[in-house]
Amino acid sequence: xxxxxxxRIPIRVGHKYIAIxxxxxxxxxxxxxADRILLKIGRKxxxxxxxxxxxxxxxxxxxxxxxxxxxxxxxxxGDIIRVNVAPKPxxxxxxKEKLLGKRLGAEKIDTIIRDIVADDLSDIEMxxxxxxxxxxxxxxxxxxxxxxxIVKHGERLNFKDRIVMDKHCIGGVPxxxxxxxxxxxxxxxxxxxxxxxxxxxxxxxxxxxxMEVLANVVNNAKKLKQIAxxxxxxxxxxxxxDLAAADDKLIRVRYPLKLDPxxxxxxxxxxxxxxxxxNNVIIDIPIGKQxxxxxxxxxxxxxxxxxxxxxKLRMKMKVVVTNADQPIGNGIGPVLxxxxxxxxxxxxxxxxxxxxxxxxMLCTELLHLTGKYKSKKSAEKLVREVLDSGKAYxxxxxxxxxxxxxxMKKVGEFKINVTAEKxxxxxxxxNKLIATISRAAGAPSNPGAGVYVHKKLxxxxxxxxxxxxxxxxxxxxxxxxxxxxxxxxxxxNNNKK
Length: 497
Fold this sequence. Notes:
It is a single chain. The protein is of the alpha/beta class. The chain folds into 4 domains: 2-85, Barwin-like endoglucanases, CATH 2.40.40; 91-137, Transferase, Pyrimidine Nucleoside Phosphorylase, Chain C (Transferase, Pyrimidine Nucleoside Phosphorylase, Chain A, domain 3); 165-403, Nucleoside phosphorylase/phosphoribosyltransferase catalytic domain (Pyrimidine Nucleoside Phosphorylase, Chain A, domain 2, 3-Layer(aba) Sandwich), CATH 3.40.1030.10; 414-493, Aldehyde Oxidoreductase, domain 3 (Alpha-Beta Complex), CATH 3.90.1170.30. The protein contains 18 helices and 18 strands. The strands form 5 sheets. The chain has a 6-stranded mixed beta barrel. Strands 12-15-17-13 form a 4-stranded antiparallel sheet. A 3-stranded parallel sheet has the order 7-10-11, sandwiched between helices. A hairpin with a 2-residue loop joins strand 3 (36-41) and strand 4. Helix 3 packs across helix 4 (106-117), helix 6 (140-152) packs across helix 12 and helix 9 packs antiparallel against helix 16 (391-403).
């Protein structure tokens, strides 16, 4: 054991406890980079990842602590840190078993997740776990156990309601902001619907980005429980509350190589539902040439797994397969999507009909899932009444107020109109390119940026008609947008044979 003087390094690394020593001290400890060391001050102890400096920034009797490590140990002037080698976590053995193709039982998966939440695993070890799940797969039993472990080692919201509703879309369709319609409609009908949503990673906006235009989306578990008890539900950012902490850490290491082991993806989705006690859930799987899933066969395989895991979690679930061939709604980007949602809730004439009808369908399926309605037709009638009467809009405003209302930003002041280069019929719209254009415009970091779609599949256009408009908040973004193949986003068939 060494006794070293702590030196604060004023850098935050964001997700790990890291300490650093010079080469001489590392040799004395017989340790290498990424090894674990145990830090002790009085009764306080912390396991940290070791880094080694080749230069002379640290003396032989010093140990550098990055900001998170310094704050966690609550270092005071004159403190001396006792440093020792930390034992390797038990999880390493189980991760190796997964890499070798063995199935992991509930206890082993629970141990891995416990160590991930406690920051006892390095990024390298977590990446190997993800790799093992990616190459060897996860059975339905492993996936259910992974879901339970993620929820166990995080916060959980418990409600006394017999029915707690939720929804999820696997993504891949620009716009598609149905959550912001479904939650107010369902809660206006008196049901509980606590909805955690994601921010955008590669898309122009996640539901959390769009909702944040109108309300605060970062709340702790206690606050969320109070909001749900007051107004029936919420729409909040899942990463802003410790409901599935391990999942957020695993997503971070999956992201660089876009590794999405199906079992881990399913566990990620199901854990978010399970953590808010949801027991009636609808899953939206869009398919098509422009979607994440291209064929009905892929959708049916995913549907089968969702239902199998839901059964193991004692969760009622309905999976619907929808169309992914074009954007849903007109706006793509936080503010533009908000405007779509408000138009639907206020029953305005130019409200996007496709977004409205999809939201009605999802609400109808959710209600029917409860078993409290004789038919889907009777459930749909109730949904339309709540929407047409303005009750859903009133409820939406109650949710916004409960979460903390914000002043809505405006659409970007700079714009580019992209027009049809010939007369004909629209036969395809490239979702990925529309999303790329929206991000180049600045979405979601610039909320007022994005794309407004004027024309949809099957519509006839004349040369010079507006297909879509790109909005940006500054002139620099216009330059980025103009470098993209804007005229390739739509394919128009002029019917000439």
